[in-house]
């Protein structure tokens, strides 16, 4: 089965996904019966391009790498904005990989709405749509007979949601705890080596781990958004990022980190949620964790998530030093899930 794909947000993750598609092309066709062509690419800085016959992906990657605009690859009348792109890209699947807005989830939220209303499946790495409108979008997708998938939103490509959906049948998630922001974990690890907060931030920026403005990470917004998503999707709560108690790491000093180590502990930015007296309590804050706690062993850009269920008790996922390639894999995994579902539907099988 051939899928026409459009990538909205052709930055680091979008380009990594394009390379993964190219690298896996023969394998996807041979092992999964999946072929593809990219009919649309859109960026904030380098413009947009659509071609129903399929864009030259290698040329697009070269242009983006060189900072050149994509319009030279476009076929047809000039495109207007992102919504014009969605309407005209002719895709079966839209990949939303634009930048997170933790206050409103926009414009990614409206991008997802528009694509679903246009009859597309949607796969998002952008956390905003889930954090602010998960149930609305899931309902819209079901009414349209389309998929809305999001494996890459919380732990890069680690199978968090597919694990809960496919492997934890009959289990209820009662709570969770974890380290979900790679940037702050890297900064805290670097501070353990004696560096100041500012030095650690600069090192993270030099390595491409932190943005020029690191506030979404160091102020806890990224972690709070992920916490809200997990509570909403896995626990059935209704939580937005603003409703998560949030304390970032700006006030953590090297002396705090060293004092914790002397006491046999490590400071980590911990995300957690659970039910208390029938009310969901969600929090992101620096915590001192004992040395024998699994979270104390999560260093650098690694992450971990422990799910507490009514059947398996504690189940923990650990991802070591993830990067854009792992996020790209999450997008591919969701595409394969859509293809599998449609093959089963075509064969008249029940899922």
Quaternary class: single chain
| Structure summary, number of beta strands | 12
Total individual domains: 2
Approximate helicity band: 40-55%
Which structural class should the secondary elements be placed in?
alpha/beta
Q: Kindly provide the radius of gyration, computed on alpha-carbon positions and rounded to a whole number of angstroms.
A: 21 Å
Query: What are the secondary-structure elements, in order, as H or E?
Result: EHEEHHEHEHEHEHHHHEHEEEEH
Distance between the termini: 19 Å
User: Number of DSSP helices?
Assistant: 12
Choose one word for the global shape: globular
Name the poorly predicted regions: none
CATH architecture of the largest domain: 3-Layer(aba) Sandwich
* Overall mean confidence score, pLDDT: 95
Give a quick account of the main beta sheet: strands, pairing sense, barrel closure: 6 strands, mixed
Strand content: 15-25%
């Amino acid at each position: 089965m051939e899928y026409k794909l459009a990538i909205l947000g052709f930055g680091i993750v979008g380009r990594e996904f394009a390379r993964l598609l190219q690298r896996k092309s023969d394998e996807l066709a041979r092992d999964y019966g999946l072929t593809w062509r990219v009919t649309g690419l859109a960026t904030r800085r380098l413009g947009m391009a659509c071609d129903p016959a399929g864009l030259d992906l290698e040329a697009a990657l070269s242009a983006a790498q060189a900072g050149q605009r994509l319009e030279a690859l476009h076929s047809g009348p000039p495109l207007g904005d992102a919504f014009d792109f969605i309407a005209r890209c002719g895709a079966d699947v839209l990949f939303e990989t634009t930048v997170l807005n933790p206050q409103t989830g926009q414009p990614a939220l409206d991008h997802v709405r528009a694509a679903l209303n246009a009859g597309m499946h949607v796969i998002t790495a952008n956390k905003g749509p889930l954090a602010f409108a998960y149930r609305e979008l899931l309902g819209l997708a079901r009414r349209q007979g389309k998929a809305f998938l999001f494996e890459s939103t919380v732990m890069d490509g680690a199978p968090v949601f597919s694990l809960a959906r496919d492997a934890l049948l009959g289990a209820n998630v009662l709570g969770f705890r974890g380290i979900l922001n790679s940037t702050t974990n890297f900064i805290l690890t670097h501070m353990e080596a004696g560096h100041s907060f500012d030095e650690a931030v600069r090192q993270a920026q030099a390595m491409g781990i932190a943005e020029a403005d690191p506030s979404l990470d160091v102020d806890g917004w990224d972690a709070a958004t992920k916490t809200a998503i997990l509570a909403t999707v896995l626990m059935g709560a209704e939580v937005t990022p603003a409703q998560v108690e949030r304390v970032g790491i700006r006030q953590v000093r090297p002396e705090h980190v060293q004092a914790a180590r002397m006491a046999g502990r490590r400071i980590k930015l911990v995300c957690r949620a659970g039910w208390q007296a029938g009310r969901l309590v969600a929090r992101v804050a620096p915590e001192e964790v004992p040395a024998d706690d699994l979270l104390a062993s999560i260093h650098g850009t690694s992450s971990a998530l422990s799910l507490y269920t009514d059947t398996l008790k504690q189940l923990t996922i650990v991802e070591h030093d993830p990067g854009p390639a792992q996020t790209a894999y999450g997008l591919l995994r969701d595409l394969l899930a859509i293809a599998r579902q449609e093959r089963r539907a075509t064969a008249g099988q029940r899922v």
